[in-house]
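User:
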Amino acid sequence: MFKPVKNIRTFEAISDQIRRQIETGKLQPGDKLPAERELALQFGVSRNAVREALRILESAGVLELQKGASGGAFILEGDGSNISQSISDMMALKRISLQHLTEARVELMKVILKLACANADDTDFALLEQNIEKSRVAIENKDRDTQMELNAEFYSIIAQATKNPMYTLLVAPISEVVRRFVKDAGIRATIEVIDTREELLRLMRAKDAERAITLLSEYLEATHKAILRRSPTGAGPVQD
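Assistant: Predicted structure:
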């Protein structure tokens, strides 16, 4: 049976139109939307309705609202931050466990590594080499924050090597949530991490996807166990 049709709320109609402009490419990352007054005139609505629509789009990570004379509403690059927050919220509500997260991460990286081994080029390998060397320096200098940033970058580079941007979008938020767990558990990377990544890079160059997948899967499982040793329930804080 059909249900009665309800009129869409004004701010939803506004946000839908802005999203559509982005989808069709008429609005690009970095573009600035007209001022609230101008938007209200174009949409034929109140400024309050425009303001509410912009706030919703900001919460969704679609745009950024900047204050000041040169401020305004700017279209953002998609970075997956809203996905990361959604995962964190679901974990806080006990709908997703650390085990769920690890299982999904391992399976996702299997697919990504298979494609990366097939599609990675010299530029990707050079980026991985640079990342590994920077990570070595960060570990030796006990610069934990930098090392953790480089850790997320490492997985992002592998995802980019698939030549499918969807994988980059999926990897980033998962890496961010894991980073929060690792940080809360007080886990520090050792120089052995560098050995593992150098071997992974060697296997990727050789297009040996099977061994690369085995190596990384074992490493990710070891990280999971290390977190559980510090937080047995796997329910430590997942927000900074």
